[in-house]
Design goal:
Helix content: 25-40%
Number of domains: 1
Oligomer: single chain
Radius of gyration: 16 Å
Order of helices and strands: EHEEHHE
CATH class: Alpha Beta
Number of strands: 4
CATH superfamily: Macrophage Migration Inhibitory Factor
């Protein structure tokens, strides 16, 4: 935990390396002291079917959804949100100034009583213990 989904429109790949976008988001989340690297899962989700605003094929989007344990506290969740926004902007460069692109980042707190999490990754990588 946490789980991060980096969703993006297919046409974004014409402008940036989306694997780099996913890596930047993952690395940014890992910078926060409340996020253990062994529990971090980041997924790139390319969307080929979408409509944005007026439906113009040039419109693009990046939507990051981070699901984190609410026990971290609101301040930590806001800090993670801001790190993720910065990572996206780094990957996008100045695209927002000359391309039609929508960027959104949302942190969704998870009630720890409502989930079960089992993870053996630490058992296999000494540096994660």
């Amino acid at each position: 935990m946490p789980h991060i989904f980096v969703e993006f429109s297919t046409n974004l790949k014409e402008h940036i390396n989306t694997a780099d976008l996913v890596r930047h988001v993952h690395d940014a989340a890992a910078e926060h002291p409340s996020i253990p690297l062994a529990g971090l899962r980041t997924r790139g989700v390319e969307r080929a079917e979408y409509l944005i605003a007026n439906g113009d094929h040039r419109n693009m989007f990046v939507a990051v959804i981070a699901r984190l344990n609410a026990d971290r506290g609101k301040d930590s969740l806001l800090e993670v949100r801001d790190l993720l926004v910065q990572a996206c902007k780094k990957s996008l460069g100045g695209m927002q100034q000359h391309e039609p692109i929508a960027l959104s980042v949302e942190v969704q707190p998870i009630d720890s009583e409502m989930r079960i999490n089992e993870n053996s990754i630490r058992d296999y990588f000494e540096e994660l213990t």
